[in-house]
Amino acid sequence: MRKQKNNRAQLFTSGERSVAGLAILTAVVVTLSGQVVEAMMRPSLGLYDTHRTTVASVQNVVDARPLG
Prior knowledge:
Blueprint: H1 14-40, H2 52-56
């Protein structure tokens, strides 16, 4: 039996494929690193990030309270 040779032209060279794989891997690592850093940081709440007594001293602010 003869082995058939694949005569199809390659769309990308092996070097281009390895660079594309490296680019995809780098994008995944950067994305996951960003998500980890974001999860470790607390969001800034601005004025309300401080202790409750500071928030109570803000003028013209009424706390939400249930009606019943």
